[in-house]
Specification:
The chain is an alpha/beta fold. Helices cover about 40% and strands about 10% of the residues. It is built from 9 helices and 9 strands. It has a 9-stranded parallel beta sheet, covered by helices on one side. Helix 4 links the parallel strand 3 and strand 4. Helix 3 runs parallel beside helix 4. The longest helix has 14 residues.
Length: about 230
């Protein structure tokens, strides 16, 4: 997140009503972690955000968006031109919901930071998000950890990083059941990509760390602990 965005102070909301009121009041950063917002609430919120010009940061971690909420968020991203930070950890979006978010990212050139960790995306969800970044030119930070992406997800992101995307700077693939095969795919991609400078692979099943370190062209690579599967 850039310094200007980081400097915008968060305003806390405990429920959907407070979030909607803050949006209408022109708040620039809203944190509504665990506010109990379900898919109907997400629909109401995203409809309000489609033409909103003031909100820059939104944290909806630990809510109940579900797959339908993913669709509503994706539709919002196609129209909103001011939101730059979106945190969706633990919303049970799933692979279908993430496909709608991916569609939104293909048409959005404003969002810079997206957190989709712990959303049961699986390989299919990782593939659709990775594919969307082939067209997106604004996302610089993506957290897709804790999603069971596996080596298939790592391969999808390696293809995007090697052949297409030159905007993403930070990619978090931690706790995704990635093995040496996925790490080697990422290593080959990093040989061709000089933009990404932070790749997080903590809590995966990568034992041969020297292999990817040999090929990396990034400033900081985090492996962390090895997860046994």
């Amino acid at each position: 997140m850039d310094s200007e965005l980081s400097d915008i102070p968060w305003e806390h909301a405990d429920n959907l009503g407070e979030v909607l009121g803050m949006v209408r009041a022109g708040c620039r950063a809203i944190e509504a972690t665990g506010a109990g917002i379900d898919e109907d609430g997400i629909l109401e919120l995203t409809e309000l955000l489609k033409d909103n010009t003031t909100l820059r940061k939104l944290n909806l971690a630990g809510n109940k968006s579900g797959e339908a909420g993913g669709q509503y968020i994706g539709n919002m991203l196609k129209e909103n031109t001011h939101l730059e930070y979106l945190h969706l950890w633990g919303n049970k979006i799933g692979p279908i919901g993430s496909s709608f978010i991916a569609d939104g990212l293909k048409e959005n050139n404003t969002l810079k930071c997206l957190v989709l960790s712990n959303n049961d995306l699986g390989v299919m969800g990782a593939h659709t998000i990775a594919q969307s970044l082939q067209n997106n030119t604004s996302i610089t930070f993506l957290d897709i950890g804790e999603n069971g992406c596996g080596d298939g997800g790592a391969l999808a992101f390696s293809d995007t990083l090697r052949e297409h995307n030159r905007t993403l700077q930070h990619l978090d693939l931690s706790d995704n059941e990635i093995t040496e095969f996925g790490a080697r795919c990422l290593a080959r991609a990093l040989k061709e990509n000089n933009v990404i400078h932070e790749l997080t692979l903590t809590f995966n099943s990568i034992t041969d760390k020297d292999h990817i370190n040999e090929h990396k062209k990034i400033g900081w690579l985090t492996f962390g602990e090895i997860k046994k599967i």
